Amino acid sequence: MPSMSLKHKLKLLSNFFLAGRFREIYNMFWVYPLWWNRKYASFLLNKFLPNLGIDLFPPFLEIEPTTLCNMRCVCCEHTYWKEPSKNLTFEQFKKIFDDFGKPKWLGLTGIGSSYLNKDYHEMMRYAKSKGTIIEVFDHFAHFNDDEQIKELIEIGPDFQFASMYGASKKSFESVCVGSDYDTIVKNIRRFVELKKEMKKRFPILNFHYIITKDSKEEILDFLDFVHSLDTEIGEILVTPMLHGFKEARKFETRIDKDYVDKVNEKAKQYSIPITINMSAKQEAEGLICKPPIRNCKEYIMPFIFVTGHVTPCCGQNEANARVWQKKLSLGNVLEKPFREIWYSDKYKQMRKMIRNNQCPPECKLCPAYEKGECENNK
Predict the structure, then answer these.
(1) Alpha-carbon distance 122 to 91, whole Å?
(2) CA distances (Å), 310 to each of 30, 67, 134, 322, 327, in order?
(3) Calpha distance 322→83 (Å, rounded)
């Protein structure tokens, strides 16, 4: 939930006008009113529209292109699960995308390294040809050469996140085992250089900083690094581990208000917008406890596994509960179109429970909302 200023939002929007991305601008009017303000979005989705008899079809969609990964990140469920790795084919992607009805916003990411899927750029290119707003995450470790980076810039996904696990070789590689921090930094700097040489406004560079016990104290150094790039930054998303599952619990750490204030102060110094994500909402928003589940808006952004299974959102990923997620899947888009799944009795019941401030069984591992009553949020 971006907490950036209106001034920064308008600055980002100007890129779309100057690049002539008018279909994307149209899509924004469907997308961002349902995302940028949690209270406003949940009022629309869970109260106002249902009272009018409208059960809004999602403008958002997340699709997982691969579960292949050659790294062993200590905080990532992929390191510990038993599921065979798999690529989504372009034909499968196209079927999901077209059956959905051309989503207005697409997150093309998942529990894997996207560049290990040879069809990854083709998927992005197809979605961009439809005017869809695209957001992608990558750790910038698998670029083959400048030509591949140039191709990414030419395709021009709207927002390109670089996932980071620290601000030094030691801490980064201790978390992201099998990575090469120097290569990642070199690729990020080369991306910035080539984008300037090509005089392109897109992709707008963003960062996802994952907080573990090893990366926590390096975040201010990381902000120094981002500032040194001398390029426009959409935002930095700061995420403590969402799920301290058994195998990764020892890498988990807490952040408090003092930490958040320190980070925000440094980011303000550099004019870099920061968003504190999900499980840290309590500290980031000054809440006594997390928002009640009736305030959930994330279910409007369904997440599709590489196997086609539909889950309510991405929030329960990284809990090392992949088998459970599949078991409670709301349907499979490789078997029937998402629209049929969305309006099925099972999916309708899930939304009804959320609107009645009850936790659906499919959401029991949610890290973002109170699943029971919290006296201070009544």
Answers:
(1) 10
(2) 22, 15, 19, 12, 10
(3) 8
